[in-house]
Give the backbone structure.
Amino acid sequence: MDKNTLLQVWPIPAFDDNYIWCIHDGKSAVVVDPGDGAPVLEYLARAQLTLKGILVTHHHADHTGGIIHLLSALGKHIPVYGPAGDNIPGRTHIAQEGDKIEIVSPRISLTVFEVPGHTLSHIAYFANMQANVLEPMLFCGDTLFASGCGRLFEGTPSQMSQSLATFAALPKNTLVYCTHEYTLSNIRFALAVEPNNQNLISWSQQAQELRNKGLPTIPTTIGQELQVNPFMRCNQAEVVHAAKAIANQADLPSPAHVLAVIRAWKDRF
């Protein structure tokens, strides 16, 4: 395969800890969750890329605030995909569970998952292995983070549990492109839940080294998250034990109950 045909995914930093993901083929680009238009325009100009689409996972301003700026600067004909039920600025296409989004340039096929929890209408975009995609890719917004998950601003623990189960069923080599650099703080909490998790201890060291060099800790993979992320491990004995201890409850009958306890614990951690 000609390496020049492979899609690249580049993190455009925004605000304090956001990443706006730019998917491109060296000529055309799609961006995910552009909360700020200025750094996107700067990167597109520097890399000599033409913006051909915008993907939005949910309505929060740090994911949507730059859309109108981009449309005004580059042309209102650019398609904007986003969830139903929310006010997504400039949205031209509603994306719902099971939808297939076919983008011609850069060529990529995406499947939409509805993943409520962080918000009620949160969606994610999944690209399976394709001619120009060597490993599956998941653009999951604020539902799943490296070693963590999003706050439950609108959804329920049961909804978040089911959303994370949807991700857990994906191929283990799926690259996870979340939209915040929260990894080190997430790891600190994860170690409180599972202090004896050797995979997590090793990941803590690796993540710190990456950040010391000014490098992103993202993407991770689904396989890694199943090993180190307590919110993806709510059926594992050590996580269940920690949740029961913190809640002072003898019985937590489902992973959703465990998630409810550890998410509330994380909120006050």
Q: What stands out?
A: The first strand starts at residue 8 and ends at 14. The chain is about 35% helix and 25% strand. The longest helix spans residues 198-212.
